[in-house]
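Retro notes (design track)

What went well: tokenization of the new backbones is finally stable.
What didn't: we kept losing track of which sequence belonged to which structure.
Fix going forward: every design gets posted as structure first, then sequence, in one message. First example under the new rule, 141 residues:
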């Protein structure tokens, strides 16, 4: 990945969520690539962990200005959940058998966030969520 140019590179360098509302006019994106892929707007968010970039979220839409401030807030919350998961993974590796996490509050928080996150995921052109983020209620026996 080239971090010296482009929207993704700028996001990695600045460690900020960045949004491109119109791939036709924004000089930070490759217009030809976006045209070929049917991308009109983009959001990029780096996932920082222990002073490194652990990954990226890149959201694409075939609509100009598809992503709202609320979408960015939801993406930020999703990033915080991933960061927490990475911290728990590190702690479990460092202290196997010692770390005891109350999973239920974490699951409840994820369930509460799911309805806000799913519409953002669905904005990508031709995408389908790989899994339903909402868990079905337990059926009585």
């Amino acid at each position: 990945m080239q971090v010296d140019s482009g929207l993704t590179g700028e996001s990695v360098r600045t460690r900020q969520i960045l949004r491109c509302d119109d791939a036709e006019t924004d000089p930070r994106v490759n217009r030809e690539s976006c045209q070929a892929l049917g991308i009109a707007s983009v959001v990029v968010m780096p996932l920082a962990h222990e002073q490194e970039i652990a990954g990226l979220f890149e959201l694409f839409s075939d609509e100009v200005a598809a992503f709202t401030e609320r979408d960015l807030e939801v993406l930020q919350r999703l990033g915080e959940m991933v960061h927490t998961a990475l911290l728990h993974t590190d702690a479990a590796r460092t202290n196997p058998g010692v770390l005891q996490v109350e999973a239920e509050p974490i699951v409840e928080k994820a369930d509460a966030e799911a309805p806000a996150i799913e519409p953002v995921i669905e904005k990508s052109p031709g995408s389908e969520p790989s899994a339903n983020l909402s868990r079905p209620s337990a059926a009585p026996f």
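Added context from the reviewer: Residues 14 and 71 are 20 Å apart (CA to CA).
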